Amino acid sequence: MNVVACYKVVPDAQDIQAAPGAAPDLSRAERVIGEYDLMALEEAAKLAEATEGRAVLLSAGSSAVNDTKLVKAALSRGAEELFCVVDDALESADAWQTATALAAALGRMEYDVVLCGEGSSDQYAQQVGSLLGSMLGVPTLNGVSAVTAIDGKLRVERTLEDVVETVDVPLPAVLCVTSDINLPRVPQLKDILAAGKKPVTSWGLDELGGLAATAVEVESVLAPQDAERKHIIYDEVSDEAIAAVASAIKAAR
């Protein structure tokens, strides 16, 4: 089975600061693989191993995608090859533009299943996987918490609010996996060294039809304002305390 795991390079959240005017300052933020995408990378490696198949990676973004350290970090997690769409115009791409670039790249690749994280660590729109499946015209499921290969198809579990849904999915397909589907491996030194020898194929947007028209217009991106806390503490559970809490909430609205 040919398994493709998609990931996004994002600013490390712990390095983001608020600039004057409340705009986020990313100038000192180190680039990392999105934390939700790590589960997709791990599941791709496990699924390829279980089916004696092949796991590869796909990413679309700015030149940071080709950073040697990040390439090794991605390929040290079990995949055999990396494909990427690299253009600085993708730095601020919305979900539609990102999905369009990924779909164009997949048109040049062999795949049976494409795995995405439940959302990116920066925007967390939770739209790219669903848009990608629609563009490819294949079955698409989100909320996937378990995947098993059975007789040329996938048996998928989706953990919903109060039930676990089991679905048999024909291939090819796109699956968006949850953050609790697995525990991503910690690459060892030998894995990192081996990753430096794995092939990497890069395309520019001009080779894949250019940048798609944006689907949204962003007015501004601002950090939330600090709110002064009331420091009101209720240390008992009683009807009177509950009523007091409710009254305080109503008064503050």
Shape: globular
Q: Average pLDDT, to the nearest integer? A: 92
Rg value: 21 Å
Helix count, per DSSP? 6
Low-confidence stretches: none
Structural class: alpha/beta
Task: Please provide a written account of the structure.
By secondary structure, the protein is of the alpha/beta class. It is 25% helix and 27% strand. The chain contains six helices and 13 strands. The strands form three sheets. It has a nine-stranded mixed sheet with strand order 11-10-9-12-8-1-6-7-13, sandwiched between helices. Strands 2-5 form a two-stranded antiparallel sheet. The longest helix has 14 residues, at 37-50. The chain is globular. The protein starts with a strand and ends with a helix. The model has no long low-confidence stretch (mean pLDDT 92).
